[in-house]
Design goal:
Strand content: 25-35%
Helix content: 25-40%
Largest sheet: 6 strands, antiparallel
Strand order of the largest sheet: 3-2-1-6-5-4
CATH architecture: 2-Layer Sandwich
Number of helices: 4
Distance between the termini: 29 Å
CATH class: Alpha Beta
Number of strands: 6
């Protein structure tokens, strides 16, 4: 088994298009962290839209307003959002049934200012995400930023 960085580098290779690369990146991140569900999202002016995902099913909301959910909060705050119990957070917008905790990491555009994408990771367990998970996912966000460049 390779390192997460090597696995993500391998996922980014190939000329088969951005969507295929993004799908492989989701798989690599999911495998690296042992996560239940991983999604990558495009962030537009008005809308957030799923680009790729890996897990037991597609997101319940493949597109939603850029101000909604924990994804919208990560865009607005321009920083990682970690919620240990999504049922206690009024910002939560369901992605996958049975989710109990979620972490959303912004991916910045090449200008370093605008949030262009998001990594969204969901768990069926409360308080599932540690500082180590945050560090891993924030490093992944830096590594995969070229998908939005």
């Amino acid at each position: 088994m390779g390192s997460p960085e090597k696995d993500i580098s391998a996922a980014l290779e190939g000329g088969d298009g951005r969507a295929a690369q993004a799908e492989r990146v989701c798989e690599a991140i999911r495998h690296a962290g042992g996560y239940r569900w991983v999604g990558l999202y495009d962030v537009g002016e008005e809308q957030i839209a799923v680009l790729a995902w890996s897990g037991p099913g597609p997101p319940e909301h493949p597109t939603f307003r850029a101000t909604e959910g924990l994804c919208g909060a990560a865009v607005e705050q321009r920083s990682t959002v970690v919620v240990g119990d999504v049922m206690a957070d009024p910002r939560y917008l369901s992605t996958l049934g049975g989710t109990r905790s979620e972490i959303v990491v912004p991916i910045f555009a090449p200008d370093g200012v605008r949030v262009a994408g998001l990594i969204d990771v969901e768990s069926q367990h409360r308080d599932a995400f540690t500082d180590a998970d945050r560090g891993l996912l924030e490093r992944c966000a830096l590594q995969i930023a070229p998908l939005w460049g």
